[in-house]
Design the sequence.
């Protein structure tokens, strides 16, 4: 008959075996249920592009065949919100995942060159 520590070792071993078996069973189910591939996301951020300047959004003036193909094969967003009306804060928000005001960027970025910078 088992006593004390020996009984405890066997009990721990059985518990670990059962937990391991359940974990393995769950892991295989999760692997089977997982999608085959991860989706790809393409974010196109363009300055001065109107809401209907792309053919896939109704333009009859501009031809945008490659963007139209992406739009036909994927998901098209018809409504969006930009926290700022200029490009720099919007791009910073996309790259950081934070509101422009939180990172202190609410206007376009101005480049100030050094003393030796040639400019107009």
Sequence:
């Amino acid at each position: 008959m088992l006593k004390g520590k020996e009984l405890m070792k066997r009990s721990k071993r059985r518990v670990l075996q059962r937990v391991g078996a359940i974990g393995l069973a769950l892991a295989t189910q999760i692997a089977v249920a997982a999608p085959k591939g991860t989706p790809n996301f393409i974010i196109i951020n363009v300055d001065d592009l109107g809401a209907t300047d792309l053919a896939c959004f109704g333009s009859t003036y501009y031809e945008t065949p490659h963007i139209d193909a992406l739009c036909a094969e994927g998901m098209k967003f018809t409504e969006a919100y930009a926290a700022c009306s200029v490009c720099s804060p919007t791009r910073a928000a996309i790259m950081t995942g934070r509101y422009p005001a939180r990172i202190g960027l609410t206007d376009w970025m101005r480049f100030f060159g050094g003393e030796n910078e040639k400019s107009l």
Remarks:
- The CA atoms of residues 70 and 76 lie 9 Å apart.
- The two ends are 95 Å apart (CA to CA).
- Residues 81-112 form one domain.
